[in-house]
Design a protein that fits this description.
The protein contains eleven helices and 26 strands. By secondary structure, it is α/β, with parallel strands linked by helices. The chain is globular. Bound molecules: flavin-adenine dinucleotide (FAD).
């Protein structure tokens, strides 16, 4: 059998697997295969600083010299076409193959395309990778009216960036609130007020019905009963996990490649992590696929440990952030089971947290410009040392007093 680890995908998860394998003492061959031409980079700035100023360059996750000095065979601009499980190798588009003993699928996700007419018109964009951001930036320069379809994180970050660049911006959202899948209603309302205050038009409960064009170029979006003029349209309505390499060899997928609590697929030599993986989430007790840098990176570390023979089940408090203009939104925990919430701080001053509870148990905190609450949540959410709703709402109660012991010790 071949030696070595092959990692498909050089995003946040894939490149962390390579780095963690070396940090954990793995000394076999490591091949990191990335379809993108850019050295692995931070994806979050794509909708923020990089979109505004691509000439300042990507924020590389590690310098080029790292891959050489850590004997990571990084293949950029290379797409894995198929997994040959019987032969223990991956085959590459354009020819060639790479053998593996262990395989990590970290293929991420791709933008969801809405089932509406004319999504193929010139001037319709998606944003997933650096190449998308460069294309989009070039059209931002000349566009007057930008229409963003989707009031989720990426759509709103883009909209804020477009306003900062002086564009006329309309955000079209099908549901009755912004970021509705992910944040508390108070946070949705606050960001609605912010975006309107920054000068964007926000149309809630306006499902996009069609994109209209003239001469092959977009001119408007039909949303609900409204026709919104558009020079460019950016679609941010969520993603579809890249599971096809796995399903082609019979691995199960259910909104992501199905893995166990060690991130192992039903094939004992193949792991899947990050945006493409559906894993048993220990805090909510059901299978989830989480799209965040933290999940991809922490799952990568878990896989590296398993490969070097020190397996531990995956258990990390999930957290996420979204920067919109100069406002920092940070989320920790999962609010799926929450049935009540209390606010700490002052919404009208733009600095507050929404503490969300399932019964009396704190399960998630959404913080707006209150980083200390977020950091505290990351320390305590996996411990018994949690505030009651009354303590959380009471600004005179010192939440730090709850930290009786370090998070790792509490977990053991
Ligand atoms: C614009 C934007 C802003 C974001 N902002 C935030 C944020 O503020 N905070 C946050 O926590 N998260 C944010 N995210 C989400 C975060 O970036 C993702 O959750 C994270 O990148 C997932 O890591 P991953 O390794 O699973 O996938 P990715 O980072 O997407 O990497 C997957 C890689 O696999 C490659 N690939 C796919 N198929 C193949 C193949 N067959 N062969 C070779 N390579 C392949 C892809 O090209 C890609 O490079 C943002 C995402 C985007 C797009």
């Amino acid at each position: 059998m071949a030696d070595g680890v092959v990692i498909i995908g050089g995003g946040h998860g894939g490149s962390q697997v390579a780095a963690s394998l070396r940090a954990d003492g793995y000394d076999g061959p490591v091949t990191l295969i990335s379809a993108e031409i850019d050295l692995p980079y931070q994806r979050p700035p794509l909708s923020k600083t990089y979109l505004k100023e691509p000439e300042r360059g990507l924020q590389e996750l590690r310098p080029a010299a790292f891959y050489e000095s850590h004997a990571v065979d990084l293949r950029l601009g290379t797409t894995v076409e198929a997994i040959d499980r019987a032969g223990g190798r991956v085959t590459l588009a354009g020819g060639g193959s790479v053998p593996y003993a262990k395989l990590v699928i970290a293929t991420g996700a791709r933008p969801r395309v809405p089932p509406i007419p004319s999504v193929e018109l010139d001037g319709v964009f998606y944003l997933r990778d650096a190449a998308d951001a460069r294309r989009l930036h070039d059209r931002f320069v000349t566009a007057e009216s930008v229409v963003v379809i989707g009031g989720g994180f990426i759509g709103l970050e883009l909209a804020a960036t477009a306003r900062m660049l002086g564009r006329t911006v309309t955000i079209i959202e099908a549901t009755d609130r912004l970021m509705g899948r992910s944040v508390a209603t108070e946070v949705s309302q606050h960001f609605l007020d912010l975006h309107r205050g920054w000068g964007a038009t926000v149309l809630l409960q306006h499902p996009a019905r069609a994109i209209l064009g003239e001469g092959g170029r977009v001119v408007a979006v039909e949303a609900g009963d409204t026709l919104v003029p558009a020079d460019i349209v950016v679609i941010g309505i969520g993603v579809v996990p890249n599971v096809e390499l796995a399903t082609a060899i019979g691995l199960a997928a259910d909104n992501g490649i199905v893995v166990d609590d060690h991130l192992l697929t039903s094939a004992p030599e193949i792991f899947a992590i990050g945006d493409c993986a559906s894993f048993p989430e220990p805090f909510v007790g059901r299978r989830l696929r989480l799209e965040s840098v933290q999940t991809a990176v922490d799952q990568a570390k878990t896989v590296a440990k398993a490969i070097v023979g020190k397996p531990e089940p995956y258990r990390s408090v999930p957290w996420f952030w979204s920067d919109q203009a100069d406002v920092k939104l940070q989320m920790v925990g999962l609010s799926l089971l929450a049935d009540r919430s209390v606010v700490r701080g002052a919404i009208e001053e733009g600095s507050f947290s929404v503490f969300q509870f399932a019964g009396d148990r704190l399960v998630a905190i959404d913080s707006v410009n209150r980083a200390a609450d977020h950091m505290l949540g990351r320390r305590i959410l996996d411990t018994p040392d949690l505030p009651t709703p009354e303590q959380a709402a009471d600004l005179s109660f010192d939440l730090k007093s709850l930290m009786k012991r370090p998070a790792m010790a509490a977990r053991a």
